[in-house]
Amino acid sequence: MDEDAAATDLELLRAHVDGDPHAFAELFRRHRDRLWAVALRTLGDREEAADALQDALLSAHRAAARFRGDSAVTTWLHRIVVNACLDRIRRRQAHPTVPLPDGNRTEDGSGVGGPEPAAAAPDHDTALVVREALAALPLEQRAALVLVDVQGYAVAEVARILGVAEGTVKSRCARGRARLAVMLGHLRPTVAAAPPPRADPALPPRADPALPIRDVPGVTPGNPGPAEGVGSRSSRFRRDANQEDT
Question: Of 56, 61, 54, 63, which Cα lies nearest the Cα of 79?
Fold first, then answer.
């Protein structure tokens, strides 16, 4: 076991090809958590993810002798897992299934056979909404986002996993994020608008700034409104003062 722990991934894979019955199990043990996370995030269903991961490991177990060594072993394993997940999604889309009716409900929706389950916690609800939005993305965008944004792999590594150019990964992530921003926009916290300032009762009411200039009370073409009134009052004061001087 200590020798297995000290061996590199490539050495374990070669030992498996040479007939070591424990080498592949050790290789899987090293990477199973991240491989499982990728499968689960990509498929959004635990049973589907478990089946996809099992399919991927069987494929890797059988294809180990064909590994050319042009990438890291973990990259190769991730590529097989992602492809297994995408294959299951494509098959599911081609042959959709109809879920069985809930045994605890009658056709009219009334509950029988037990109390109504408690409402899910808000955080759980949010996670479900995010997973559903992620599942609604096109397959290529979903795979890229899961690897880059959820699992934290570098773009260059994801490009090797998916077998595409780095620019393609960036483009898929950008388009996927844009779609998610639209689908999940309602989850953003809303900022309450500041209340309008209270009017000073000593001042005359101001015109509604939303009104067109022709609809503001007291303002007509050729009559700018309060500013002209102030100017007229000042002119009248000057005229009265001049009359007193004479």
Answer: 56
> What is the CATH number that goes with domain 1-95?
1.10.1740.10
CB 79 within 8 A of CB 68: no
Q: What are the distances in angstroms from CA 239 to CA 201, 225, 234, 235, 243? A: 31, 21, 9, 6, 6
What is the pTM for the complete model shown? Answer: 0.62
| Longest CA span, the chain | 124
With contact defined as beta carbons under 8 Å apart, do 10 and 69 qualify? yes
Q: Which CATH class is domain 132-189?
A: mainly alpha
Q: What is the pLDDT of residues 127-167, one digit of tens each?
A: 778 788 888 899 999 999 999 998 999 999 999 999 999 99
In the three-class reduction of DSSP (H, G, I as helix; E, B as strand; rest coil), residue 220 is classed as strand
